[in-house]
Specification:
The strands form two sheets. Strands 4, 5, 6, 7, 8, 9 and 10 form a seven-stranded mixed sheet that branches. The protein has 403 residues and is of the alpha+beta class. The protein has helices spanning 2-18, 37-50, 89-100, 138-149, 196-206, 233-242, 246-257, 267-280, 304-316, 318-327, 387-402; strands at 29-30, 60-67, 72-77, 106-113, 116-118, 121-123, 126-129, 155-163, 210-216, 224-232, 351-357, 360-368, 374-382. The chain is elongated, with a radius of gyration of 26 Å. The protein starts with a helix and ends with a helix.
Length: 403
């Protein structure tokens, strides 16, 4: 028995020495001291074997698996390779927003008026101040109409103006392709469309109130508040993450841009907020570029290590994690993962954000591994000619880690 025990001990020692951390260059695997040499070594061997496929000689792959429970890197490959994250960029947007805005933040659209009422006429203007709320819909519009009716008027002598000073006047994101079918980015939306004033004036006319003019103008100081409509941040995060809705992601992104109160804020102001959090995590600027909040821009670049750092930060802060985790797609159940990993150990275990652009497929999030530990992982496939093959690889990695 002593001989058998000695042989086993020698075997484990050899494995441990073989997988000691090594200096790395682009394309080499970075092995970090494992929390459990046997389990981690087995994972490393298997994942390395999966990466030996000749397909990866023609495409780029960046990958990290981090044990959150043991606070230890299990596996990494090209962890510091800058790549296009596609919609996994939404993870950085959501985590930063929850950090800076908090889970109680409300997306708000506000209604004001100026002037005075005489003989059922408002001798002044009506202002709608946009807060980039993509959830603003029929009930909200009816509440605005009701608020104006409360003035006991049948006409507005002035105009109804949209105050869209929350963000810049660019209708598309920085680095978006001109031929993409993308939503118009404006802080004043109705049913996710850029048609707010048109719909509002129509509703007022139906209610018996005539309007002389419409346009865009900043709401003056001293205007009288009439009504506000709000939606909670978790109402925005759900479609943003589950459905990978780009409009909702940009709505969150521009809340960050507006934090300093700069009129007509651009993506640069939002980038500053994300950079601040990244700096606090020890991430260098060489590892990423932020161009939008949705991951659509061709100017976004991240490394897998950056995504892992943000996922780790969220996990350590339950006031962030509970909102993020609930909003992530669940493998085999809902969102963009509804039809992936429908069977097996990964099903209903993996909660992750997907990402797809031409030539790019990515997946990053959380899972519970076969050792019972919670893992954060990031897989970015770039330069792929078949996104289905990339997704199949990602699914196989998740299934292996979970079983």
């Amino acid at each position: 028995m002593k001989l058998i025990f000695a042989i086993r001990l020698l075997f484990i020692s050899v494995l441990f020495l073989f997988f000691l951390p090594t200096a790395s260059i682009a394309g080499e695997r970075e092995y970090v001291e494992p929390f459990d040499s046997v389990w981690a070594s087995t994972v490393k061997v298997e994942l390395s074997s999966m990466l030996a496929d000749e397909w990866f000689e023609k495409t780029q792959i960046g990958m990290c698996v981090y044990d959150l429970t043991a606070d230890s890197m299990v596996f990494s490959f090209n962890a510091h390779q800058r790549m296009r994250p596609a919609s996994t960029m939404k993870l950085l947007t959501a985590i930063t927003a929850l950090e800076e805005l908090g889970g109680g933040f409300q997306f708000s659209t506000r209604l004001y008026h100026t002037g005075y009422v005489s003989d059922s006429i408002l001798y002044g203007d009506v202002y709608v101040v946009g807060g980039f709320d993509p959830c603003f819909g029929r009930d909200d519009m009816q509440a605005f109409v009701t608020a104006i009716l409360s003035l006991a008027i049948d006409s507005v002598a002035g105009g109804i103006y949209a105050d869209v000073s929350m963000k810049d006047t660019l209708q598309w994101g920085y680095g978006w392709c001109w031929d993409d079918e993308m939503p118009i980015l404006t802080p004043l939306l109705y049913m996710e469309k850029d048609c707010f004033l048109e719909v509002m004036t129509g509703c007022l006319r139906d209610a018996g109130i005539s309007v002389a003019t419409t346009g865009s103008r900043c709401c003056p100081v001293g205007a009288v508040w009439l009504c506000s409509r709000t939606h909670a941040i978790d109402q925005i995060l759900m479609p943003m993450m589950k459905k990978s809705d780009n409009l909702y992601a940009e709505a969150v992104f521009y809340q960050l841009a507006a934090l300093d109160g700069i009129p007509f804020a651009s993506y640069k102001e939002a980038e500053v907020i994300i950079v601040k959090l990244a700096d606090s995590l020890g991430i260098t600027r060489e590892e990423y570029d932020v161009a939008d909040g949705s991951g659509v821009s061709l100017y976004n670049y991240l490394t897998p290590a950056v995504e892992i750092a943000f996922l780790r930060y969220a996990y350590k802060h339950q006031d962030i994690f509970r909102y993020l985790y609930n909003a992530l797609p669940i493998a085999g159940r809902d969102g963009t993962l509804k039809n992936r990993m429908k069977h097996g150990s990964a099903s209903k275990n993996v909660r992750a954000k997907t990402g797809t652009l031409t030539g790019v497929a990515s997946l990053a999030g959380y899972l519970t591994a076969s050792n019972g530990h919670r893992m954060a992982f990031c897989i970015i496939n770039q330069g792929v000619d078949d996104a289905r093959k990339a997704r199949a690889f990602q699914d196989s990695v998740c299934e292996y880690l979970c079983r």
